[in-house]
Design brief:
With about 130 residues, the chain is mainly beta. The protein has one helix and ten strands.
Length: about 130
């Protein structure tokens, strides 16, 4: 069977990009507000309202995917993102307490405030078809 799909070539004929099996469709995005972590028994955790989810009916049209971009989170040592689960037409996120605690403690060094270390990111989601 011959390859069927899309190929983008440079002026010299080099294949820059090739899509031969499936295409992606962006469905939407959700921007997390900035949250201040909560100290619970000497451990930094995300506030309860930072956990949540969305119903995305368009997930039934293919294989879901997601990725994050940073939108103002204090993240000198790397972006903190929640754990994400996609099940059926739902996308659910939770902030792992151990990961939040580690991230906040790293951002505190040397003697920096802990504000704006949770959230401040955007979750982009779509489907491959």
């Amino acid at each position: 069977m011959a390859d069927v799909g899309l190929r983008v070539r440079s002026e010299s004929g080099y294949v820059e990009s090739s899509v031969t099996t499936r295409l992606s469709k962006m469905i939407g995005s959700y921007t997390f507000p900035l949250y201040n972590p909560v100290n619970s028994n000497n451990k930094w955790v995300a506030p309860p309202e930072a956990n949540g989810g969305l119903v995305v009916n368009d997930f039934s049209g293919g294989e879901p995917f997601y990725y994050f971009t940073c939108e103002g989170q204090k993240s000198t040592y790397g972006m903190l993102v929640p754990s994400v689960t996609i099940s059926g037409n739902s996308i659910i996120w939770t902030w792992d307490p151990d990961v939040v605690n580690y991230h906040v403690r790293m951002e505190m060094f040397p003697n920096q405030p802990t504000s704006n270390t949770v959230g401040g990111i955007t979750l982009h989601y779509g489907v491959y078809s």
